[in-house]
Amino acid sequence: MHKAKTLLARLAAAAIALSVAIPFGVAFADDALGDVDTPNVSSAASSAVASDSSVDTSGVTISKNGDAAEAENSSFAIGDFSRAQKGTNRDVDGEYHGYSYLVGRDAGTCAQLVAGDDYVVAYVPEKNARDLGIDLTSSADQASLKAMFVALDAGQAAGSKTLSSFDTWYFTSDKVFEKGAVRFEFDQEVSGKTYVFVIGVDGSDLTDSENENYFKPSFADFGCPAQKGDVVIEEQVTGFAAIGEFLSNLDWSPLWVSLRTTGIAIVFIFVLGLVAAYFCLNISPRAKNICDVIFTIPMVLPPTVCGFLLLYLCGRNTAFGQFWIDVGFPLIFSPAACVIAAVVVAFPLMYRNALGAFESLDANMLDAARTLGWSNAKIFVRLMLPLSWSSIAAGAVLSFARALGEFGATLFLAGNYLGVTRTIPIAIYFEWMNGNDSVAWFWTAVIIAFSFVVILFINLWSSRTTKYRKREGN
Known about the structure:
Elements: H1 2-33, E1 41-43, E2 49-51, E3 60-62, E4 69-71, E5 76-84, E6 99-102, E7 111-115, E8 119-123, H2 126-132, H3 139-156, E9 168-172, E10 176-179, E11 182-190, E12 193-200, E13 219-227, H4 239-249, H5 253-281, H6 285-300, H7 303-314, H8 319-326, H9 335-359, H10 363-371, H11 376-404, H12 408-414, H13 424-433, H14 437-473
Parallel strand pairs: 1-10, 8-9
Antiparallel strand pairs: 2-9, 3-4, 4-5, 5-13, 6-12, 7-8, 7-13, 10-11, 11-12
Helix pairs in contact: 5-9, 5-11, 6-9, 7-12, 9-11, 9-12, 11-14, 13-14
C-alpha cells in the first residue's frame, strides 16, 4: 500500500514537471527551428494582447489620397491602406474556408484587421513586426497602430461603422487566432491569393443565422507597415489650391451625361406632354379618366418600380426589346436607356401642367374661333398655346429638373457606366459608397443649385404672369 502511494506521488510529480517543461520546450524548439509553415493557434487569453484604451489621432498625418499615414512618436508608418466593406461566404478553390476577405497583397507583407461585433483583431505578420521593431505587447506601439489605422479607416468608411467605435482590440502575430467559438485565420494563401478567413472553431459557418455561435464580421482593413521614411506622405493642399486641384482632378462626365440626357429627354417630354394633354381634352370623360391614370401613374410609383418595368419591357423578355437588340440598337444599359427613364418619370409633370392649363381656357372662346373657320391645328398653335404658355413653361422647367435628378429608374434600366450612363445622381451614390465624400458633396451641391434656379425661375415667371394679368384686368 505504501509503495502504491509512493508510485502515485512520483507519477503526479512527473506529470506536473512535464506540463511545465513542455511549453518551454516547444517554445525553444519553435525558436530554434523557425517553423513558419505551421501557424500557431492563439486565443484571447494567451499570446494575443487586448487593449481597451481610447484612440488619439491628433498626431497622425494622412496622405492626401488617404492610403498612407504616419504618427509623430512612431518609427514606422502605414502604407497601401484599403478597406473591405464586405467579404464573401462562398467556397474558395472548391473548399469552404469560412467568411473570407481577399487581402490583395502578398502574404506576410501587410497588417490585417477584422472588426467583429464589439472588438477588433489586429494581425501584424511576425517577420514584419520583427524587422520594424514593432512590439505588440508595448502600449506605445499599440497606440501608434491604432491611431494610424483609425485615422485611415475614417476616410474610407463611407458612412458605415468605423474602427473608432470599437474599444477592445486584440493584437497578435499568430496566423490563427481564436476568440471564443470564432477562429480568425490570417495570411492564408489559396491558389496564389492571400485571404483572411473567419470560421467557427468547429469548422461551422458562423454567418448562418441558425448557428448558436452566430458571428459576422463588420469589415476588414489592410495596410502595410514600413519604416517611416519609406512611406510617402503627400501633403494635402489647402485653400484655393485645394479647390483648384479638386476641380482639375474631377471627372466631369456625369455632368455632360446628365445634360445630354436631360436635353434630349425634355424635347420628348414637351411634345408628348402637350399631345397627351390635348388628346385627353377631346375624348369622353370615362376614357379621359382611364388615360389620365395611365399618364400620371409614373409620378406616384417608386422610381425603382418604373425602372424594373422598363427593364422588363426593353429587355429580351418582350418582342419590343428583342427587336431593338436584333437591329443592333439595344435599349438597356445604353445612353438611350437614360433618356427613356428620364422621359417616363418626368412626363407626368408636363402632362398635368399642360392639361390643367388647357382645361382652364374658356370653351366659348375656342368655339368662337371654330365659327371663324379656324382649324383645330390653328386653334391649338395660335390660341391655346399662347394663352397657356405660362403653365406649359412651368411644367417644362419642372420636368427638366425631375429628369435631371432621376436616379432609381435610370440605375435599373441604364446601369452605372462611367461616361455613358453615369448621371449626377448615380455618381453621388457610388462616389459616397466608394468613400469619396468630397466628390459626392460637390455633385450634391450642383443638383441643389440646379433645383434652386428652377424654383426661382418658376416663381419669377409666375410673378410676372400675375402682374401682366392684373394689368390686363384693369
